[in-house]
């Protein structure tokens, strides 16, 4: 039994040792493959033992230990700890064959290269060597790190590296070179001329992968050198649809500034476009179907100007809000007014995104609506406030709704605003009342209905709603100075329930301003206000004093009013507020002390002597009504977005409503049309058919121009080919290929890339004709049909030749080639299928 127990104990010990070794092996393998079960928090362990271990790990032969040491260093950098003491040990690993180790080394060098410029220069040779590596990722990474080292001494070396990478076969490396240009310029501005030459070379690149970065470099180094853009303008327009999203934003910004200096203003008088009623659905495609014809029926634009608008139009469907806003900027600032309606629906679509994006879009919409409210009139319901909207979103939506209010939608808008007034949020309810007032001021015909709705709010239980309603009613009553007595009487009856100082002051002002129509009510209002004068707010006290002065000027002989007014002045004389005391002193001197003084002469007779001061006071007394009861101008409610229209749409300055560093306003339109011949560069070609081959290959983004790639003929708006005629025959033949060439089409078929392949196909076609000519009856029928079709084709060819003679020498040569091929009898035409 004892032996059995001893064997069991030994077996248990061996099993424990085995499980420990297995677990250690599993953990070790997991760390090698990046599948560590524990979190990466152990890299942030800053104990002295771990820090001493880093140097040993960096000098280790194993990549795994080097990775651990470098990760600890990067973790220390993220915590703000200075680990520059390990700089020499890190630089040793810059030539490692492990890409992950190189990346970490590059991150460390970017952080401490400025502090250790001498040691950083030791790694420059390694970076220069990496510029010739076979892997494009290593070449791009080396250039990125070289340009990121902020040491002015190496700026000539960085410039040479950029020049070398500009001609790299990989589009990814060329893109990195474009990113390095602004860094080199900020490091050494004296290299500007050389960098401009590099940008000129990069502008000739036909890769849509790099063009966005090139334009960003252009905007940083030489944003006003439009002479470099002239030969590439049309290419940029055509490449716009294929560029990356942020590249599209940069290109659109450049083309906007370019167009403002090279084209004439399409809206010289800024006419208001006619309001088009559209009852179609929000996501209907009617606009996209008619978009091509709408530009032709509008103001006659420069062909390049029209090309820019047509190239930007598809980007309104982009998923990126910045791209959509940039295209809206193009159409708002460059397009004819008749075409600007195309930007409204894409902008409204962005209101379904995050609230930060909503705020930016709404700020731009509000600015557009101040100048062109007709753009967003069909989309009024899209601006209705939701319960989940933030306060800043609600305010902008209310502002936009009041800006786009018309006779057709005012009833719907007022009904919606009445629901907002019922909100328990006091700020939102008062903002809705202010919106009702802006609608009434903007549309005087609806003032009556707005007033009736506001008068009903006087009996609301919400003090803020009542106060704001009184303030808005006061503004509206100034628009109609006649027939206000009944409304003012209703306001005076509500004085006991109204406690907000601004509302009470507004009522007292209305009573005093229109006291001529309130002969019985106004004195009683003054009597009641005198009782509560001491307890009133300062702004209310001032209006009570003004009310007494106006009533006394209308009835100077009324002793009751005189005594009542003097009582109010005596109360104001000892008030704590010096403004109230000064106002009382002014009115007392103006009204009550303008009486003649009685004096006794030497002979004892009492006479009246008028001094020069009394004469002046009499003049003031005669004009007292004009001074106190002069007509006040009707208020003009200004939009909160007023003043934003001086900024460019889509800019940060517009959102903040003030200029910021780096903002440049758009240049003014030229008075005379500039010469556009500089844009007629036929050597620059770009076709969307250039394919991105693969990210891992050195030919990524490479493109070889084809003989079929032609610059867009912007002089002819209609297409130069007929699609119906092109698709008449189901079976494509060599004759169809040649016709496509003569029509300027690019007909890509397998095996037809070179002239040798075309000759081989012709021989195969002739062989097929010989094989098919076994039956004599079929030959006769085919020959008769061929003669008939050849006669029809000859007539068609004569018409095509007359049209193609006007299109250029290339098409004439292609037509001659077609005729020669027909004469040899190598082209067999198949019957047309109906």
Automatic annotation (TrEMBL):
- rRNA processing recorded as keyword: no
Q: Where in the cell is it found?
A: Endomembrane system
The biased composition feature labelled Basic and acidic residues covers: 670-686, 817-834
> What is the protein named?
Clathrin/coatomer adaptor adaptin-like N-terminal domain-containing protein
Ranges for region Disordered: 267-295, 664-713, 727-834
Q: Which family does it belong to?
A: Belongs to the adaptor complexes large subunit family.
UniProt lists compositionally biased (Acidic residues) regions at 750-816
Where is this protein primarily located? membrane
Highest taxon listed in the record's lineage: Eukaryota
Keywords assigned by UniProt, alphabetized: Membrane, Protein transport, Transport
